[in-house]
Every structure is written in structure tokens, then in C-alpha cells.
Amino acid sequence: MKTELESINCNLCGGNESKRITVQNGFNIEECLGCGLVYVNPRPSVESLIRMYDTYHSRDSKDPQSWAYLMEDNFREVS
Q1: How far apart are CA 40 and CA 28, in angstroms?
Q2: 64: cis peptide before it, omega within 30°?
Q3: Which residue, of 3, 9, 26, 29, has the fewest CB within 10 Å?
């Protein structure tokens, strides 16, 4: 599966100047020089995100409890 990337301006201020601060999982993490927002750029296209998340969680399981169990560690981390 090939990830298609798209370059974007800052989602907060619309600025087009940024500096790379790190690379995580092959993606550039950049900081906007105008407002300081940190974001992925270039980012995966909408179509690529749909393909990535389509295999992230089984679509066959519509049970909310099953999904909550799978996400339990994530929810605990951000609480």
C-alpha cells in the first residue's frame, strides 16, 4: 500500500513557512514559523488515510464494547 502525500499550509494560521523539528514513523513533523503550531507535513492524503484506517480496526465488529476494549490503552493515556 503506497501512501500518497500532500503538502499543506498551517491549519491554524494558513502560513506556508515551517521548519522540520523531527521525523516520526517516516513523517516530517514541522513547526509553523508564524504561529508555532506543530503538524505533519507533507501529510497523507484523505484517500491514503482511509486505506490506512480501514485495516486499523475490523469493520466487521460493530459492537461498541469491542471497540472500547481495543482502544482502552489509548483512552487511559490521554485521560
Answers
A1: 6
A2: no
A3: 26
pLDDT digits (tens, 9 = 90+) for 22-70: 999 899 999 999 999 999 999 999 998 888 877 666 655 667 777 778 7
Separation between Cα atoms, residue 53 and residue 44, nearest integer Å: 12
Residue 56 pLDDT: 67
CA atoms within 13 A on the CB side of 41: 18
Can you tell me the distance from the alpha carbon of 34 to that of 12, in angstroms, rounded to the nearest whole number? 10
Look at residue 17 and tell me whether its pLDDT is greater than 70.
yes
DSSP, residue by residue, 48-78: HHHHHHHTTS-TT---HHHHHHHHHHHHHHH
40 CB-side CA count, 13 A: 9
Query: Residue 56: in which H helix or E strand, if any?
Result: none
What the block records as the C-alpha cell of 72 is 482502552
